[in-house]
Write the structure tokens for this entry.
Amino acid sequence: MNAESPAPSSAHLHAHRAGDAKHAHFIEARSQKALAGALVLTLLFAVIEVVTGFISNSLALISDAGHMVTDAAALGLALLAQLIAKRPPSARHSFGFGRAEALAAFVNCLAMLALVGWIVYEAVRRFADPQPVQGAIVLGVAAVGIVINLLVAWMLSRDHQNMNTRAAMVNVMGDLLGSIAAVVAGAVIHFTGWVRIDPLLSVFVSLLILKSTIGVLRESYHFLMKGVPDQIDYVQVGADLAALDGVKSVHDLHIWEMSPGEPALIGHLEIADLARWPQVLRAVQDMLLAKHGIDHVTLQPETPDARAHAM
């Protein structure tokens, strides 16, 4: 290379030209207002619930407070992940930072599993050895918690396509169930004095939360492991490629998501005539986008003679 020639910039290397995939490798349009507002509300009420939960000695309220604290951490992590995901690709991270959101979702779900485990353990212990609970305090604070959680859930529901926000939403919905359970527990204890309702409802809510948590955990794990997107049939894509005019066979085919909702494909196509490669490539791109929603395509053409020589 000529010593006077400038080195190519990272932005130049990442640029998409005509015929390339339409999506960028970073998230531009996503707003952080909903997450930021939800974080402030959740954090403020989490402090209130933690204090009143210990004052009233209610496991239902403490578990709900624990959910709120976890929600605040989850929302903070989700907000941070969205800010990171907006960063463009760099010389060290050529794929960009879109996976930060899935990583945050995965961590949030792991934290939720740990919290569920602690609540179930504490509930079993308290069911065997009932503790006095101030039902009136539990009832009043949990009722306010329902209103707060409904407001936070409404704020987050506007970004339902984001895996990261859905993971935070699981925590918030779990906390909403916890607040409802705490209201029921507070009312029963206040009017009947039956304190075992407190740990019993805590276990019930925890089991409900567990199902949603595992679902998001599985989704984020699949994405982080570069699994084939659920909406795409890997075998059918290979068959459709092989059926195109001019394509003899397909091998070394990989399909994954660059960022949530943005599938990508790489592979090798054996074709009869390299001179027809531009026409074959255009047919491949049109088919993959129209039939499978795959826009980011990188393919290497090969001829039977070239493969035989390489072997």
Q: What stands out?
A: Residues 139 and 186 are 4 Å apart (CA to CA). The radius of gyration is 26 Å.
